[in-house]
Write a structure and sequence with these properties.
The protein is α+β, with helices and mostly antiparallel strands. The protein has one domain: Outer Surface Protein A, domain 3 (Alpha-Beta Complex), CATH 3.90.930. 34% of the residues lie in helices and 25% in strands. The strands form two sheets. The protein has a three-stranded antiparallel beta sheet. The chain is globular. The protein starts with 17 loop residues before the first strand and ends with a strand. It comes from Demequina mangrovi. This is Coenzyme PQQ synthesis protein D (PqqD).
């Protein structure tokens, strides 16, 4: 079963772990998503929207970071993987992202 949250879950993502975005309903406009996940409604930033799109069918953390660097360029003052982990942590708290670990 996918892990929804936990204090160390995003930082504990391994190379084989995949993240997947989940939602009950979504509206897209001007590069952003308004996401309904359970009872939570979240307006995602442009970067978070791209993460949700890229992770819809599941993607590894490293592949997701590479994808974001291709789309937006490298983040300032941090590693791409670390920046993605921070955003994934927030999306997990909102119920928009889950971690899938291989069995």
């Amino acid at each position: 079963m996918p892990a929804r949250s936990g204090p160390d879950a995003p930082m504990g993502l391994g190379a084989d772990d995949r993240v997947r975005s989940v939602w009950d309903d979504v509206i897209e406009r001007d590069g952003q998503m308004l996401v309904l996940s359970g009872n939570e409604v979240s307006l995602l930033s442009i970067v978070a929207t791209e993460i949700a799109r890229a992770a819809h069918d599941g993607i590894t953390l490293e592949a997701l970071a590479d994808h974001l660097v291709e789309v937006f360029g490298p983040p300032q003052h941090t590693d791409g993987v670390d920046a993605v982990r921070e955003i994934i942590d927030v999306l997990m708290q909102r119920g928009v992202m889950v971690i899938e670990r291989p069995r």
